[in-house]
Amino acid sequence: MPSGIGGAGSPDRRRQAARRRRPHPGEQYLRLVRHTLRRADADGEIAGYAYAGPWRRKPAYSSTVEDSIFIAPAKAGFGIGRLLLTELMATCADAGSRQMIAGIADSDAEASVRLHKSCGFTEAGRLADVRYKHGRWIGTLLMQRALG
After folding, report:
1. Which has fewest Cβ within 10 Å: 12, 82, 101, 127?
2. Do residues 124 and 145 lie in contact, with contact meaning Cβ atoms separated by under 8 Å?
3. From the CA atom positions of the chain, what is the Rg in Å?
4. Which domains are seen in the chain, by residue range?
5. How far is CA 50 from the centre of its chain?
6. Concatenated DSSP letters of 75-108
7. Residue 67, class by beta-carbon neighbours within 10 Å (0-12 exposed, 13-18 middle, 19+ buried)?
8. Long-range contacts for 52-57 (Cβ within 8 Å, ≥24 apart)?
9. Quick check: 105 and 137 in contact, CB under 8 A?
10. Does pTM top 0.85 for this prediction?
């Protein structure tokens, strides 16, 4: 048998061993979201929330997170997004994350773009027609910020 085929050092066995050492991506995602979830309340209601999840599943990207933020329409414009995003960035930096990515729908998202720019994010690129939302294809604006 040629060296490396089916033996302990074969690519298949190395992949199997690597899978046993790493948590399942779904478990890793849920752990990160639980750790980073932030909620803002106003008048006895949820005014908004923010959390971070893995940017990519591959281990090489484990220090990069993607943010997700929602602000209730009636609570927009009161600084809740900035408070949530600022706290989220600090939490992720304290946990060892190095970069945060924002993937923003490239239509009717001016407030999100302004929020991210005000918190130090810069435009990193655009992806055309990658999301199907509200019955049409739309693009994604990628923004990025170093943490820590």
Report:
1. 12
2. no
3. 19
4. 24-146 (3.40.630.30)
5. 10
6. GTTSSHHHHHHHHHHHHHHHTT--EEEEEEESSS
7. buried
8. 52/88, 52/91, 52/92, 52/97, 52/100, 53/29, 54/25, 54/28, 54/29, 55/99, 55/101, 57/25
9. no
10. no
Q: SS3 for 45? A: strand
pLDDT (tens digit, 9 = 90+) per residue, 46-102?
A: 999 999 998 998 889 989 999 999 999 999 999 999 999 999 999 999 989 999 999
Residue type, 140: T
The DSSP secondary-structure symbol of 148 reads -
* Contact status, residue 64 vs residue 32, Cβ threshold 8 Å: no
